[in-house]
């Protein structure tokens, strides 16, 4: 007997229900900004992703197009009519990973920037010369400014609630809290680490020279047409300063009771 795989079953179901079958292996077919309108928790719960839109509808790929609760939930969430297409559970799960945690434009740019800086480090014959450059001076250099800008843009697009920059003995980790879970992202090159912290302190109008006491600050950015408020806490640790940035997106909060569907 021939065993049917996920795709065979999905194709048969699409034909039976007279629904369009869509493959999701080409990431260019997915509108990433639109896809992230839905929280990852909802996408995983109902095994679906929003992939595009027409003039009248938002296109949603579902593994179970007969799930009325899922359709009602996302219609209420995005406040538009939806057009359901069908895709295999495996492809939807892979798409969810690419949408919420994949190497999108910002993450790929971060990786490219870090690789460039690491290559520059390795080409330096005298690393002691680098130590003469203060973190404050380095924080005003283009690579560091670019790194912090990309990090913030990636956090907003991923709908992260906060960013944690944590120094280690010989490295640094950067994590974003997405849907309540801290996830690792691209760390800076070694020589950029102190400068990245200094850059955040400059944006927050903190005292750059103060490294022994906790500090709090805030700043605003505009990305993807949205005004974002960033609240910052810096705490000294044994290996350096730990930074926590809280991302507050005013546009993500809807205070209109009439639109809650009650």
TrEMBL record:
One of its GO terms (molecular function) is ATP binding. GO terms for cellular component: plasma membrane. Keywords: ATP-binding, Nucleotide-binding. InterPro entries: P-loop_NTPase (IPR027417), T2SS/T4SS_dom (IPR001482), T2SS_E_N_sf (IPR037257), T2SS_GspE_N (IPR007831). Pfam families: MshEN, T2SSE. Residues 19-104 form the Type II secretion system protein GspE N-terminal domain. Residues 138-261 form the Bacterial type II secretion system protein E domain. This is Type II secretion system protein GspE N-terminal domain-containing protein. It comes from marine sediment metagenome. The lineage of its organism: unclassified sequences, metagenomes, ecological metagenomes.
